[in-house]
Design a protein that fits this description.
The chain is built from 17 helices and 13 strands. By secondary structure, it is an alpha/beta fold. Bound molecules: uridine-diphosphate-N-acetylglucosamine.
Length: 387
């Protein structure tokens, strides 16, 4: 007979995109509480209420059992600080495995500490590749995948990437997309964007927003840390807003850069609604009703594909090619003419229709739990046989 709680899984979150991904995993793990004991650790990479607390509340994520409280810093500082603070926690908890998500600094930091202590690493959202090593996330992805024992993928191209990098196929499981589990689970609760418009009062052209708008997000270092690129992008957004009013929730990194580079004057039009970072349900509602979305986010490329809303990606590449081949995404880069042509096309034709990719069906977290249970049972059997 199997002992109860065969798998003690230490789940790691750090930054905003991790929170949407952990919500269905924690929910499903709690439904398997006889076999899986889940502990939640937050590194503290994102800490502002708007970047953390509101997601935990809206998505009913349990409060983390442990908060390392690392905060912001350079990549080296942040990564090193997480590793230093994580090590004693790991020594104390001795989990069966550490589960990490996505590609943020918290992902690689905790995975690296765990693997060096002989604790298996489970990577959710493995195998995505932009093939752009200038992106900090690309480094985090490649390295985390190399040291993971179980790799869960969201699209089939990810498995091909992993196999090319020498990862054994028996470690790879195509399970679908936990971020889309969250989207489907919460779609009926999405906030109506009209409320945000009326709250803005006379600062915006109410009639224009109520007859259709575009949604903008920008936070990639390559776009916002470079003054020329940021100015080019904001200038183009300013002129697009004359065609289609734009809602722009601004990431803290971008807020800082806009101020530092003196670009505030590009966002003062009554056809641009500049907002602080929004909660999950507010973003979901704004995406759902938008005529188009302009973004450099990875997750939003997937969410717009799931919603069937046209997405124009302001990057030169994507690590999520299925959003282009099957979904509603067009990768245009930051050339102002190309952005304009893509906006014109979407406004004239309604944009790509797309279809929802395989296994983006709301059941990814359950598939993950099933694989983990079987894997943990296999380990126990092997240990018993060896002993
Ligand atoms: C991080 C991730 C990125 C992800 C993004 C989502 C890495 C390498 N990058 O980028 O992949 O798409 O999160 O948001 O892990 N700040 C605040 N409040 C906070 C958090 C950050 O004001 O709660 C400010 C700080 O000044 C900080 C800056 O934002 O220096 C950047 O934060 P950081 O976590 O380093 O990277 P992100 O740009 O958020």
């Amino acid at each position: 007979m199997m002992p109860e709680k065969i798998a003690k899984i230490l789940c790691i979150v750090g930054a905003r995109p991790n929170f949407m991904k952990i919500a269905p995993i924690m929910r499903v793990f709690s439904q398997h509480e006889k076999t899986i004991a889940a502990t939640l650790l937050h590194t503290g990479q994102h800490y502002d209420a708007a970047m953390k607390k509101s997601f935990f509340e809206q998505l009913h994520i349990p409060e983390p059992d442990i908060d390392l409280g690392v905060g912001s810093g350079s990549h080296a500082m942040q990564t090193a600080e997480i590793m230093l603070r994580f090590e004693p926690v790991l020594d104390q908890l001795k989990p069966t495995a550490v589960l990490v998500l996505g590609d943020v600094n918290s992902t690689i930091s905790c995975a690296l500490v765990a693997v060096k202590k002989g604790i298996p690493v489970i990577h959710v959202e493995a195998g995505l590749r932009s093939y752009d090593r200038g992106m900090p996330e690309e480094i985090n992805r490649v390295l985390t995948d190399q040291i993971s024992d179980l790799l869960f993928t969201t699209e089939r191209s990810a498995e091909a990437n992993l196999l090319r990098e020498g990862i054994a196929s028996e470690r790879i499981y195509f399970v679908g997309n936990v971020m889309i589990d969250t989207l489907r689970y919460n779609l009926d609760r999405a906030a109506e964007p009209g409320m945000l418009f009326s709250a803005a009062g006379e600062a915006i052209d109410q009639a224009a927003f109520n007859s259709g708008y575009g949604l903008v997000t920008l936070h990639r270092p390559s776009n916002v840390d470079n003054p020329d690129n940021l100015k080019t992008l904001l200038t183009r957004l300013n002129s697009i807003s004359e065609q289609l009013p734009l809602v722009f929730p601004v990431h803290p990194r971008t807020v800082q850069r806009i101020k530092e580079f003196g670009l505030e004057n590009l966002l003062t039009s009554s056809r641009i609604l500049r907002l602080p970072p929004q909660g999950y349900l507010q973003m979901l509602g704004m995406m759902k009703h938008a005529r188009l979305v302009l973004t450099d986010s990875g997750g939003i490329q997937e969410e717009t594909t799931a919603l069937g809303v046209p997405c124009i990606t302001l990057r030169e590449n994507t690590e999520r090619p299925i959003t282009v081949t099957e979904g509603t995404n067009t990768v245009v880069g930051i050339d102002p003419e190309k952005i304009q042509a893509s906006v014109d096309d979407v406004l004239a034709t309604g944009g790509k229709r797309g279809r929802v990719p395989e296994y983006w069906d709301g059941e990814a977290a359950e598939r993950i739990a099933q694989v983990i249970i079987k894997w943990a049972q296999g380990r126990i059997i092997k240990t018993q046989e060896a002993g």
